[in-house]
Amino acid sequence: MTVADCIAWLSDVAPVALAESWDNVGLLLGDKSVPLRRVMTCLTLTPDVAQEGIEAGVDLIVTHHPILFRAVQRVTSETSEGELLLRLIRAGISVYSPHTAFDSARDGINQQLAESLELRDILPLRPVSREERDCATAGGGEFASLGSGRWGRLASLQPLSEVLDRCRVQFATPVFPYVGEPARAVQTIAVACGAGGEFIPDAIRTGCDVLVTGEARFHACLEARAAGLALILVGHYASERPGVERLAREIGRAFPGVDVWASRVESDPLRWSLP
Predict the structure, then answer these.
(1) d(CA 84, CA 104)
(2) Across all residues in the chain, what is the average pLDDT?
(3) How would residue 140 be classed by pLDDT, with cut points 50, 70 and 90?
(4) 2 and 224 in contact (C-beta within 8 Å)?
(5) I need a surface site. Which of 46, 51, 66, 214 has the fewest CB within 10 A?
(6) 92: left (phi over 0), alpha (psi -120 to 50) or beta
(7) pTM (two decimals)
(8) Of 221, 229, 163, the residue nearest 195 (C-alpha)
(9) 74 compared with 200, residue with greater pLDDT
(10) Sheet holding 150-159, edge to edge
(11) Which residue, 228, 150, 233, 151, is CA-closest to 188?
């Protein structure tokens, strides 16, 4: 097996046609012909995560957030990004990013979030276009299950406070900000991993009571409050890291002869000051 085999599998799981137009997904660094023996997944390819991969001798790093997100004209050790790239190149490590393609895939991160909250009748907040559908379903799949974000319904009306409690358990995050009245009864919930404030209009359009996302700007929170939309901000890391852990397990099942794991040194950069 080679890196190309894993890339082909990733392209089936998260078709690049589903990626947002501004994104940079696919193989971003490396040689597809390299034999595949060790694979590591991560949310963000930071220097400490890269060092873990180098020391472990991985052949491929699958990072959710892409490197080389913006065009570069020089790759030198004079910048932190250049130093990181040079270290990876010297170690012969390939880097692949599925990013928003994985967010929007049939069984991608947003679908996983919706299922973890036990939502029913789950649909995309922004269904893919006909052209995207034709590209993304060339190898099979359901059109109705493809698109950005997700929304669905709880089995019954619940106070917002119960949804907050469910999020604390599901995301292993005891403290996070939210918008809304805890006693308000809610049932229709939207989810958008990462920085999902841009999905507030979509959640309003679909008649959702709540949007669960990683983070949102202050004025997006004001927009949600004015529209009567509850907003739960569980943290960028908390909303996406479980997805890359699950991806590592799925790669391991697809390639049983390959050593696969999610980065063991990666951590949320944010800390909370508690009383």
Answers:
(1) 28
(2) 93
(3) very low
(4) no
(5) 51
(6) left
(7) 0.92
(8) 221
(9) 200
(10) 120-123, 150-159, 185-195, 210-215, 230-233, 178-179
(11) 151
